Amino acid sequence: MADLYASLFEHARQWCERAERAGWLEAADAAAVAAVEQRTPADLFVDRPAGGGRPLVVAFFGGTGVGKSSLLNRLAGEVLARTGAERPTSREVTVYVHESVQLADLPPELPLDAVQIKRHASGAHRDVLWVDAPDIDSTEAANRRCALAWLPHVDLVCYVISPERYRDDVGWRVLRERGHKHGWLFVLNRWDEGDPRQVEDFARLLRDAGFSDPLVLPTCCLPAPARPLPTPDEFDQIHAVLVDLLRIHGVEDLARLGVRARLAELRAALQTAQRRLGDAAAWTRVTDSVRENWRAAAATIASGAEWSLRAVAARFAARDSGLGEYLRRYASVAGGRKHAEPLSAAEPGNIVLLNELTGQLWDEWSQAKLNACLDALEVGLRHAGLAATPVRRPLDAAGDSAGARVTQLLRDRVRQALAQPGDALTRVLRRGTGFLTAFLPTVALVWVAYAVLRGYHAAVQGQREFLGLAFAINSALVVLIAWAVPYALDQLLRPSLERTVLRALGTGLRAGLEDVGGELIRAVTVASDEAAEYRDAVETLVADIDRVGAERLGAAAPILARVTMAAAAGDAEMGPGIPA
Ligand SMILES: Nc1nc2c(ncn2[C@@H]2O[C@H](COP(=O)(O)OP(=O)(O)OP(=O)(O)O)[C@@H](O)[C@H]2O)c(=O)[nH]1
Ligand SMILES: [Mg+2]
């Protein structure tokens, strides 16, 4: 199970690394996952065959002077660790281990110069590796650091207290945080100084801390105590309990407790980190808010640009006025172009003007409005506890291209409008008036020519006078009227260039702003898809953690419940495991 834990932890670490690199996690989220305890008691040993081929690691922890080293010496039947009146006495860890056990190189945080390893050949202690730690509440920082560094490698903590100090035990306050990571035995040493009520009193404190039926064993390490003991010494129970535990559960089963606690921690850290990724509902809210923010910003931009659009349309139309332009267009009609348009966008000079004028429409002010909209979104994301950086990245890209998009659509629409000015009906009518402008004068001329021929023929025959000035004036008037009426109609139908350009600029701007809005939504979708990928990955990981954590412990026996803390709320999610 320790190997499984190591692999799950590695996956979690890699996930965090990727997510942090992509900006989804803050360094603190990744650090919280990385800080979950990786070390396990199994690290102390080489060859760790599945099924538990290693001894159980049991350590004496507690305040200074409570008798930890005395207890180890008593257990070993010889003086292994220094004991004494000097406080603190132990400045190093004493490891008491069977000679057959192969120890691995100690992890770097366990300084070798602060460890003495005592080998023994006693069969009674073959299955247990004993550790005597320096005091946990030490005034010596080095002692405290050393004791804490060993904790992750301990299966079962033998917590030693004294009758004098158990109610105000600094070390216990430190250690109870690790309640679920270890099995626990409580030794009330210096029992010669104790009171029989203290066992129950201490047990009550432990029950309040989460132990349903804690084992509190009173002991006295003095060979000849000055006072008689209030109740018999229960030192032998320490060993008996361990033998019982190992017989029923084995090391692997007990080690699983520690792994389960680490898994619960890992799971909680991952879930905290996962909040940065949001859920489907959060992303719907983000998309809605982008849409809403942009709608408001686009309305502001559109109304702010109105005046500029008018100015551009007016400047564009200014090119189309004056006699010179009229003659130029007239020449183009005379030159055989069927429908002379007010101004052709295809003419190079007009393209330059079009580009120049439309290029100024998306200005710094418009960009600032867009950026303010994105800033507001970022603030909203951070406020909701979501990662903002990976969302901002595609949004900024969309924002940077907004000017070019809007300008392009403005130009397209103006070009289209100039290519086909007016609406469809006007265009049909103008086709008619254009035709009549040429056709009616032609018909009139043909009619006049016919009248001239007939008049000439009649005059030659002497039937009447040659045609006179009146005929010439009237004929000229007929031809003129035949041209002037359709021409005047055509002029009336001709759409105003300024209006055409202004309308095109209006629709172009609206289309452009809509396009930018669409691009912003696409950017959010890209980010939310990425978040979903990271979320899926971590959910799979959490499911694996739950599966491993939910593995039941081998055998149910009351002794295990007595040395373990009841499941906390967080552990309950990991599924049943510790038999009640
Ligand atoms: N009265 C009494 N004294 C004890 C008992 N056990 C140990 N002592 C004495 O308490 C003193 C401290 O014992 P240690 O075993 O060094 O205590 P420790 O917990 O290892 O202390 P540190 O190494 O400083 O953390 C020694 O003088 C022991 O002889 C006991 O049961 N009763
Ligand atoms: Mg000691």
Indicate the topology.
Elements (H helix, E strand, L loop, with lengths): L1 H20 L5 H8 L21 E7 L5 H9 L16 E6 L16 E6 L7 E5 L8 H10 L5 E6 L8 H6 L7 E6 L8 H13 L6 E3 L16 H14 L1 H25 L5 H39 L4 H12 L13 H12 L4 H20 L5 H12 L1 H18 L4 H37 L8 H25 L3 H53 L8 H6 L5 H4 L8
Parallel strand pairs: 1-4, 1-5, 2-3, 5-6, 6-7
Antiparallel strand pairs: 2-4
Bound molecules: guanosine-5'-triphosphate and magnesium ion.
List keywords for this structure.
580 residues, Rossmann fold, 7-stranded mixed beta sheet, 7 strands, rod-shaped, disordered C terminus, binds guanosine-5'-triphosphate, binds magnesium ion
Give the distance, in angstroms, between the N- and C-terminal Cα atoms: 22 Å
- The CATH homologous superfamily of the largest domain corresponds to P-loop containing nucleotide triphosphate hydrolases
What about the largest sheet?
A: 7 strands, mixed
As for the CATH topology of the largest domain, it is Rossmann fold
- Helicity, as a percent range: 55-70%
Under CATH at level 1, the class of the largest domain stands as Alpha Beta
User: What's the number of helices?
Assistant: 19
Name of the CATH architecture of the largest domain: 3-Layer(aba) Sandwich
The count of DSSP E runs of length 2 or more, i.e. the number of strands, is 7
Mean pLDDT score = 86
Report the principal-axis shape: rod-shaped
**Rg, Å, rounded:** 47 Å
Ligand inventory reads: guanosine-5'-triphosphate, magnesium ion
